[in-house]
């Protein structure tokens, strides 16, 4: 039998945001082992089913942000406290990603708040689809989003941050005949011994604004 060949790419779905997809292709052989066809299987890496289940769970406990449909700040603060406690007691590392929509006020002022809300939804979906189902994502407030990634190094945090930034930049917000590009500036930080929620978030926030000062639509760690 032939060995399936894998490849990775992204699909743009109807709402305008992109999701990562893996495809596996392999030959179909007849009785005499000759190749008579091929089969290709697509696997959605966005963990959409897990995302939907997470949304139901968040809504049940009043942890869902009503606009972006990801976790709200209360949920993020609770999860961050748990991760800090696990790190203190068992040394389980984690990192955080803080992302801020670029020129969000201009989007609202130019196109209206409905488009602004659609941009928040698009970024929230991309953030949810970009990471593992075990990672935590949510809206910190305003146009800021936060992701908490478990068992991660600075190098893998940098890769995850760049992947998210790139997918947002490739996505478009579509509404009422308008097609609007949205980008994000990203800052990340890895937990250090003695970190509190405030100190960890402060480092990520400082890196975020380094991205803003450097021209936006980039990652700083």
Summarize this entry quickly.
By secondary structure, this protein is of the alpha+beta class.
Mean pLDDT: 85
- From the 3D structure, determine the CATH topology of the largest domain: Alpha-Beta Plaits
Overall morphology: globular
- The total of helices stands at 6
**How many beta-strand segments?**
10
Strands of the largest sheet, in order across it?
5-6-4-9-10
This entry's quaternary arrangement is single chain
Q: What is the CA-based Rg, rounded?
A: 20 Å
**Architecture of the largest domain, according to CATH?**
2-Layer Sandwich
How would a crystallographer describe the biggest sheet?
A: 5 strands, mixed
Number of discrete domains: 2
CATH domain class name of the largest domain: Alpha Beta
Q: What letter string, H or E per element, gives the SSE order? A: EEEHHEHHEEHEEEHE
Determine the N-to-C terminus distance: 46 Å
Write the layout of secondary structure elements.
Elements: E1 5-12, E2 18-29, E3 35-44, H1 48-60, H2 73-90, E4 94-101, H3 104-111, H4 113-130, E5 136-141, E6 144-150, H5 154-170, E7 172-175, E8 178-181, E9 184-190, H6 197-213, E10 219-220
Parallel strand pairs: 9-10
Antiparallel strand pairs: 1-2, 2-3, 4-6, 4-9, 5-6, 7-8
Helix pairs in contact: 3-4, 4-5
């Amino acid at each position: 039998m032939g060995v399936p060949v894998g490849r990775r790419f992204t699909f743009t779905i109807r709402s305008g945001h992109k999701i990562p997809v893996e495809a596996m292709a392999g030959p179909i052989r007849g009785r005499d082992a000759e190749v008579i066809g091929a089969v290709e299987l697509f696997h959605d890496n966005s963990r959409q089913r897990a995302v939907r289940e997470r949304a139901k769970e968040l809504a049940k406990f009043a942890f869902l942000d009503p606009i972006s449909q990801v976790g709200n700040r209360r949920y993020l603060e609770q999860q961050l406290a748990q991760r800090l406690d696990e790190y203190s007691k068992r040394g389980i590392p984690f990192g955080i990603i803080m992302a801020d929509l670029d020129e969000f006020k201009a989007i609202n002022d130019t196109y209206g708040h409905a488009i602004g809300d659609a941009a928040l939804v698009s970024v929230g979906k991309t953030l949810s689809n970009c990471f593992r189902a075990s990672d935590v994502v949510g809206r910190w407030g305003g146009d800021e989003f936060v992701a908490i990634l478990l068992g991660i190094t600075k190098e893998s945090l940098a890769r995850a941050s760049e992947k998210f930034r790139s997918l947002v930049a490739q996505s478009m917000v579509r509404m009422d005949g308008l097609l609007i590009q949205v980008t994000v500036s990203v800052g990340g930080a890895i937990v250090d011994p003695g970190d509190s929620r405030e100190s960890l978030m402060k480092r990520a926030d400082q890196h975020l604004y380094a991205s803003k000062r450097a021209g936006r639509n980039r990652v700083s760690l």
